Structure formats: structure tokens, C-alpha cells
């Protein structure tokens, strides 16, 4: 009779974790189902199980360490009840946590009670104004609800579902294949544990009906594109009186014709007349209305400095999007675009020509600097 430690390939004094790991590896390698029922593999498999059944028991292991095979009540008798133990129990212990119900370890906590309803998704597009100030919107959500006539049982009013005779009401059946016990949902009742013999006419035995529900949803101020709102208990109804699932609302913000969003900041491009850009002055920029910082205005004055150029940005503090997490607000960033006048009259053209004759390099410093660089470039290329 081989030494049990030698059978499992472990050292004397190894801990339980090392013992279990060695057994798991060898048992999977020599299992008869994986070796076509080979007699050698079957014998080796029984030997491995016998060794583990002794060494995994603290008292038996202590007796074996002291007296050898004689100390474990004739454990060398070829796999009797005391030497080999119950193979199925051993597999439950070692493989249950890794493979769940395949080896019977998944039965704990499993219930054939009321099942929770499915979660639902609803895609909702909102405007930037709604995202800025918040909004109350109504949604029409098609979902499953509990059938009222049968109260979700699926049985005709006045009758009750009967216990499934195949699974005895457990909802699951078990089959043994070699050393393995496989558990699955009962094929007759589908895991419900009960059968509806006289179905409800309203739901045809399903216990649920489809109906469009109207929900009022509050959109918080400051939400961004891609935000998600969870409404607990507003999904599909559960089966057999189980709890409802949840409703998840995925938000998308419709592009705005004036504003672009950058985090909490709002970006807006505002045209500036050429004369205002040259002389300085004041223009008006649009502003989103709503919230405590808006003052009821949908436009804000913007001071334009003298000689401003296209691309200049002016930041208006606290006029951007509100934050979802605190009282902070972003800014409104106004980008100025200097606009050249069109459709000029003869007099207007005459005045512009006179202005062009009077303006020199000081009035057009960027143009003068560019012309100087261009001349040097042409001289280097042409050598003239």
C-alpha cells in the first residue's frame, strides 16, 4: 500500500490548502470520465480519493502520521467506507466552490421562490436648456405588470397552481453521471416548482401582462450627455409576486445651435462688427436662462476692447453649467468673431479707401510683421 502523502505528491506537514490543491489537480487528471473509463485511471482515481479522505480529516491524519495504515481502521482495504469515504461528499467539499452546482455545491442559497423582474432601459434625449435648469418630464414606458385578475399566479381566478410532480415543488432536478451530480431547472415546470393547469384568461397563464405606464421623472440640473438615472422598482414585474426590476434612463443632450459644452463651461461664438472691433464698445451675448444665477436674463452685455481681433475670448464667470455634485458653476466663454461688412454703398467704400490710405503699419502691426517675414522668405528662395 503506497504512502498517502506519496499518492498526492505532497510533503508531510503540508497545510490544508496545499493538500486540497494537490487533490484537485490529480482528481481532474485521473477522473474516469476524462479517461474513457480506463481501468488504470479508475484505480488511480480511487487511490487519490482514499488518500485525501484520510489526510483531509485532522483526527485520521494524526492517527495515520503515528501508526501508518494500521492507524486508520484498515484504510488499506481498498476503498471501504472508512478508508475511501463518500466520493460525492469529497467532491462537494473540494470542487463545490469552484464549479458550483455541478458538484452539488451550488444548492446553498438557491431558491425557487419569486423571481425578480427584469431591468429596463429607456433612451431619453433632452435639450441643453433642460440639462441646464433641470426639468420634469413624462415617460411612456412599456413594461410587464402583474396580472390583476390572477394576482400574478397565472391560474384562473378561484384556482391555484399545483405542485410539480417531477421536482416535487423544488423547481430543480438532479441527475448523477458517474461521480458527478448535475443539477438543472426542472424541464416540466421550468424551475417554478408549480404548474398552472387552468390558466388565467387575461394573461394566458403568464402571470403578467404588457402595459404602457406613464412615469414622471425629474431631470437634475447639470446632467451631461451619457448620464444615467436609475429608478428603483420601475422595471418589469417579478414572477410569482417577486419584486420589480429597475428602470435605467440613459440621457443624451441634443446639440444646441448657439452653445457647445466643455465640462461645466459653455462656449459661444459671437460676431462683432468691424467698427466695434476697431473702436471698442459693447455687444450682447446669449445666456441660458434658469437657475439662481441667471437674473432672469437671456442675454448679457460684453465689453469689447479697442482693436480686438477674431478669436479673442472673454470669460463670464458663473454663467455656465451647474455642477451635479456641489453649488459650483462653470463659465460662459464668448469667442469674438470680427465681421467684415458686405454690400457697401459707394459712400461707404469711399470712406474705407480713405481710411486705408490713412492707416499705416501702426494700425496693422500683424500685417506689417507678416509682410516683413514674407519678403525675407522670397529673398532667400530667389536670391534677389
From TrEMBL:
Taxonomy, superkingdom: Bacteria
Subunit architecture: Homodimer.
Matches recorded under CDD domains: DnaJ, DnaJ_C, DnaJ_zf
Comment on bound cofactor: Binds 2 Zn(2+) ions per monomer.
Domain topic, free-text comment: The J domain is necessary and sufficient to stimulate DnaK ATPase activity. Zinc center 1 plays an important role in the autonomous, DnaK-independent chaperone activity of DnaJ. Zinc center 2 is essential for interaction with DnaK and for DnaJ activity.
Binding residues annotated for Zn(2+) 1, in chain numbering: 147, 150, 200, 203
PANTHER family named in the record: CHAPERONE PROTEIN DNAJ, DNAJ HOMOLOG 1, MITOCHONDRIAL-RELATED
Boundaries of every CR-type domain copy: 134-212
Keywords for this protein: Chaperone, Cytoplasm, DNA replication, Metal-binding, Repeat, Stress response, Zinc, Zinc-finger
Alphabetical list of SMART domains matching this protein: DnaJ
Protein name: Chaperone protein DnaJ
HAMAP family: DnaJ (MF_01152)
Zinc finger CR-type: from-to: 134-212
Essential cofactor(s): Zn(2+)
Originating gene: dnaJ
TM stretches of this protein: none
Compartments (UniProt record): Cytoplasm
Similarity comment: Belongs to the DnaJ family.
Biological role: Participates actively in the response to hyperosmotic and heat shock by preventing the aggregation of stress-denatured proteins and by disaggregating proteins, also in an autonomous, DnaK-independent fashion. Unfolded proteins bind initially to DnaJ; upon interaction with the DnaJ-bound protein, DnaK hydrolyzes its bound ATP, resulting in the formation of a stable complex. GrpE releases ADP from DnaK; ATP binding to DnaK triggers the release of the substrate protein, thus completing the reaction cycle.
